[in-house]
């Protein structure tokens, strides 16, 4: 938790104290706020990680499909297909998953690409 946010929370809580509010109640409230903030941070991190993992899986699926299509169309094995696709992506300064997606949907025919 960043220090500025914690300090702001502390000040907000202290400003809202009433005369009959004792220190233990205040500390409980502050602790609850800190726990809530930590849980929110953990949830955000988990969400980001899940999105990254899903994107990696989606990318891998596209690449595998493109390898299969390339191997079938060009009569190569999967390793040669991967090398050809990767080489094409590198030589055109593109991400392999983008090349794979375009090859699968037919918008990137990879004409002239040898194995």
Please give a structural write-up:
This protein is 77% helix and 0% strand. With 115 residues, it is mainly alpha-helical. It has one domain (3-105). The mean pLDDT is 85.
Shape: rod-shaped
Tally of helical segments:
4
Q: How many DSSP-defined strands?
A: 0
The structure class reads mainly alpha
Biggest pleated sheet:
none
Elements, N to C (H/E): HHHH
Helical content class: over 70%
Number of domains: 1
In terms of DSSP E residues, the strand content is under 5%
InterPro entries: ANTAR (IPR005561), CheY-like_superfamily (IPR011006), WH-like_DNA-bd_sf (IPR036388)
Protein name: ANTAR domain-containing protein
Pfam families: ANTAR (PF03861)
GO molecular function, one term: RNA binding
Summarize this, please?
The chain is 77% helix and 0% strand. It is built from four helices and no strands. The longest helix has 52 residues, at 23-74.
Q: Descriptors for this entry?
A:
single chain; 115 residues; mainly alpha; 4 helices; 0% strand
Helix-strand layout with pairing:
Layout: H1 3-15, H2 23-74, H3 78-91, H4 96-105
Helix pairs in contact: 1-2, 2-3, 2-4, 3-4
């Amino acid at each position: 938790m960043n220090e500025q946010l914690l300090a702001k929370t502390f000040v907000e809580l202290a400003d809202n104290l009433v005369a009959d509010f004792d220190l233990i109640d205040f500390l409980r409230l502050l602790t609850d706020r800190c726990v809530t903030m930590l849980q929110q941070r953990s949830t955000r991190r988990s969400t980001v990680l899940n999105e990254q993992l899903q994107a990696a899986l989606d990318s891998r699926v596209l690449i595998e499909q493109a390898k299969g299509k390339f191997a079938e169309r060009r009569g190569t094995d999967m390793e040669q297909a991967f090398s050809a696709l990767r080489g094409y992506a590198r030589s055109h300064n593109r991400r392999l998953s983008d090349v794979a997606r375009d090859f699968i949907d037919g918008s990137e025919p990879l004409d002239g690409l040898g194995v």
